Amino acid sequence: MKTLEAAMSTLLRINGLVEQYALQVKNNQSGSTYLSNIRRQLPQLNAMLKNQFGMIADQVMQTNLASSRGASEQMRIRALREGVAQVKTALEIAIVHVQEKHELTDGKEEGKKAS
Description:
Elements: H1 2-26, H2 32-50, H3 54-67, H4 73-114
Helix pairs in contact: 1-2, 1-4, 2-3, 3-4
């Protein structure tokens, strides 16, 4: 559960960076510092998730790959926003599943103690 909570906080930080990058591009300013920071944060998130949640880690790396493609800035922002949204949804689902599994195992342990 700690891994998922840490991953969610990292993802929210990345989401903030994506939105700041989008704002810089909208104002016709250089967003390269935000983009490089995003590209640096995504592999860290991947490493955090890889051992226990491999499929979510793959989504993170897919988002990282989409951010490095040679498309226009608007396409890059769209890909980053979609990727962050997909990863966030996957993390939320994983959190719910982990909580359900812990409730089931806690209930079984309490039943054994009562017997």
